[in-house]
Amino acid sequence: MRSGNIRLSVAPGVASPIAASDLAAVRSALKRAGFPRWYMQAPVLGVLVRARAAPIVCVTKPTVSEFLIAQLSPKTRPTVVICSSVPTAESCRVLQSLADSGLGSVLFLGDLDPTDLVIYFALATGGLVGKRHPVRVEYGGIDDDWLAFAAGNFRPDRKEKLEDFVAQPMDKAETRVWACLATQLDVQRLVGSRCAQVLGRGQRIEIEAFMNPHLYREGYSRRLSNWCVRRR
């Protein structure tokens, strides 16, 4: 897991790989890419599973939460929160309040793509609109460590390379958002050199690419789930 030196005011106690905080530029990029206004202002935070085990895992898709819940035992299931669009400042405040209530740190699990990275950026900076409430969030989404873990579990009879198999081209909207977001994040520090190159080529990787048990060695799904929530 990667973190970097803070260059702006984010939640205390967390080193965040945010290189700048031009929130207006990010909002403008989302608008030009065709994202509606509600995408940046809707109260989208929902607690799917509340548990005592740390950390709080913030996911962007129900499929990811379902995967974690199915593979982890009740004793090891973390609190799972879904954030499917850019969180508001109030959503960030609520999420940090959950963490402060004793549920532990916040771990973000997202795709390696511009839209999920915007969600991470908004959590770390406390929202894109209104008064900020930064979250002490750690990036646990797809990065070089994730690629290495999956490659070590990839079935040996697969002829293609894992990275070539999982990477897909960004669409036009994602490309526009990425052109702006790349100036706001220390990308290589956040996701590693290999994943930074994937993004630089105009490609993305979705978590679902790592959730098909038929592509990996036996027992992989449970190993992945346990690894995800313990990699902070």
Descriptive overview:
Strand 2, helix 3 and strand 3 form a beta-alpha-beta unit. 43% of the residues lie in helices and 13% in strands. It has one domain: Dna Topoisomerase Vi A Subunit, Chain: A, domain 2, CATH 3.40.1360.10. The N terminus is likely disordered. Helix 1 runs antiparallel to helix 8 and helix 5 packs parallel to helix 8. Strands 1-3-2-4-5 form a five-stranded mixed sheet, with helices on both faces. Strands 6-7 form a two-stranded antiparallel sheet. The chain is of the alpha/beta class and 232 residues long. It is globular.
The best one-word shape is globular
Number of helices: 11
Give the percentage of residues in beta strands. 5-15%
Largest sheet, in brief, is: 5 strands, mixed
Structural class based on helices, strands and sheet pairing:
alpha/beta
CATH architecture descriptor name: 3-Layer(aba) Sandwich
- H/E element string? HHEEHEHEHEHHEHHHEH
Q: What share of the residues lie within helices?
A: 40-55%
Over the alpha carbons, how many angstroms does the gyration radius reach? Answer: 17 Å
